[in-house]
Design a protein that fits this description.
Blueprint (H helix, E strand, L loop, with lengths): L2 H14 L11 E4 L3 E7 L4 H10 L7 H5 L4 H5 L3 E6 L2 E7 L13 E3 L18 E2 L8 E3 L5 E6 L7 E5 L12 E2 L3 E6 L4 E9 L2 E3 L14 E5 L2 E6 L7 E5 L9 E2 L1 E3 L2 E8 L2 E9 L2 E3 L7 E3 L5 E7 L1 E8 L7 E5 L12 E2 L3 E8 L2 E9 L2 E3 L7 E4 L2 E8 L3 E6 L7 E5 L9 E2 L1 E2 L3 E6 L4 E9 L2 E3 L7 E2 L7 E6 L1
Antiparallel strand pairs: 1-2, 1-5, 2-4, 3-4, 6-19, 7-8, 8-11, 9-12, 10-11, 12-13, 12-14, 15-19, 16-17, 16-20, 18-19, 20-21, 20-23, 22-23, 24-27, 25-28, 26-27, 28-29, 28-31, 30-31, 32-36, 33-34, 33-37, 35-36, 37-38, 37-40, 39-40
């Protein structure tokens, strides 16, 4: 095991000293005077064991095989079975093999390093909007586009790191540089919500100047902004607030700030279609600079803001019909909300849609139909719909099978649906673009009804059908 892996063990050990005793009852890694002891509770889930093995420096192991009693991967990595007590199997590895000085005091490492909101390691669920709240601003956006985190003080300490969901809570990345007043590090972040902590000489601490703390623990929260609401004029107004679909029309939570004669508010806003309006000294108004407006169900007119990727839906022909609409997962399949405009060759509409994977259909004079120009489809609730991925971050490919009539993709991202996502053949290979959340993804291909793992991916794990699933990690 290299020095980096040993460092991982040391830093993760420190954080786990603060974890609850209940979290320490599962699989764990103990560092003693001259050896490492790895304890695996065979009742643990595959996710827990997989996370524990990574912290022990072992990646790509067949977790399902280990939970069935096959410890070949551990033995190849230098671990020996030291004993078994109940459901817990203990493995041993001498520290001298690490070429490092052993620790005199044992520390405990468990699999519960952080809590996830959506099941993806280290990545909280999406939020509609967010506004920072600092007693003293310690996170700054630089002109270069980087985000600078500042930890004031701690000048007597030797080492400080920044760890968060943006680097999968790494204890190796995020090394901070010491200045005359504290520690700094610059990272590249996309707009969104981030949780973080500092690691000072092995001790995990939150940002004491940040008033935003995660509900499930004491992680500090930072929002990287992507939008600024502005309202010109109203110089004599006493109070202006912002309310919209993103904050459930709460008229008090977002207070606009007056700067240079302009009322404005910086915030993070989730991509998609957002309705909003301003409350000026108790009177509702729409945004005078935004021509996009719509009347809500309550009869009040709201301004409309579209953030996301531009997607053009086109339907050629059908020039003799009265109306064409489109509906899909991006608008909760609401009928009659998105009409297409008639063109010389057919119908078209341009939409702003948040990143994701969606099914959709055209509605031609109240008759629902799939997109005749789109070879990819998906099944939702037993109904086949056309498929589109907005801002995909991975392309699945399957070479060969030139004579196959149908090739589909199915995985943990679509609940292993039997129809999956239809792949298209380009003459060399079958492909489909997918927007995937960070973390571990399992998948298989379905070729003419026959399930198979990805022949180009050596990483796989067994499943309950003894046929295996291919494994993909998305950063």
């Amino acid at each position: 095991m290299k020095r980096g892996a040993y460092t991982v063990i040391v830093f993760f050990a420190m954080v786990c000293m603060a974890l609850s005793a209940s979290a320490q009852k599962r699989g764990k890694l103990v560092m003693g005077g001259d050896n490492l002891r790895l304890l695996i509770d065979m009742r643990s889930s595959k996710v827990e064991v997989d996370s524990l093995l990574k912290k022990a420096g072992l990646k790509g192991a067949n977790v399902a095989a280990i939970l069935k009693g096959d410890f070949t991967a551990l033995q190849k990595d230098g671990w020996t079975i030291a004993g078994k007590q109940g459901n817990v199997v203990e493995f041993d590895r001498p520290l001298e093999a690490l070429n490092q000085n052993p620790q005199t005091k044992p520390y405990l490492i468990t699999t519960k390093i952080d809590n996830e909101d959506d099941g993806s390691p280290g990545y909280p669920a999406d939020v509609n909007f967010g506004i920072n709240n600092f007693a003293k601003v310690t996170v700054h956006e630089l002109p270069s586009g980087l985000t600078r985190f500042f930890l004031p003080g701690y000048l007597q300490n030797r080492r400080a790191l920044l760890s968060g969901n943006f680097n999968n809570w790494s204890t190796l990345k995020g090394i901070m540089a010491k200045t005359d007043s504290g520690w700094i590090v610059d990272v590249k972040l996309k707009p969104g919500k981030y949780e973080y902590k500092f690691i000072v000489d092995g001790h995990w601490i939150n940002d004491r100047y940040n008033n935003l703390v995660a509900d499930h623990d004491d992680n500090s929260i930072y929002f990287r902004y992507n939008y600024t609401f502005k309202l010109n004029g109203y110089a004599n107004a006493h109070k202006i607030t912002l309310a919209g679909s993103f904050n459930n029309w709460d008229a008090n939570s977002i207070v606009m700030e007056k700067r240079g004669g302009v009322w404005q508010k910086h915030l993070y806003l989730h991509e998609g279609t957002q309705a909003y309006r301003f409350l000026v000294d108790g009177k509702w108004i729409t945004d005078p600079t935004n021509p996009n407006k719509v009347q809500g169900d309550d009869g009040i007119t709201n301004s409309i803001l579209n953030l996301g990727e531009k997607v053009v839906f086109k339907l050629d022909g059908y020039t003799d019909v009265k109306k064409v609409q489109v509906a899909g997962g991006f608008n909760n399949w609401e009928h009659g909300k998105i009409p297409l405009v008639k063109t010389k060759t057919g119908w078209a509409v341009s939409l702003i849609i948040p990143p994701g994977n969606y099914g959709y259909k055209f509605i031609v004079d109240d008759n629902w139909m799939t997109d005749p120009k789109n070879p990819r489809n998906m099944e939702e609730g037993g109904i086949v719909n056309s498929y589109i991925s907005v801002k995909p971050n991975y392309t699945f490919k399957l070479s060969g099978f030139n004579n196959a009539k149908s090739v589909r993709l199915s995985g943990s991202f679509n609940n292993f649906d039997e129809l999956g996502y239809t792949m298209a053949f380009n003459g060399r290979e079958w492909t489909v673009d997918v927007n995937l959340k960070p973390g571990k993804q399992l998948y298989k291909f379905i070729v003419d009804g026959k399930w198979m793992i990805d022949p180009a991916n050596k990483l796989y794990e067994p499943n309950q059908y003894n046929s295996g699933n291919s494994v993909l990690w998305i950063e």
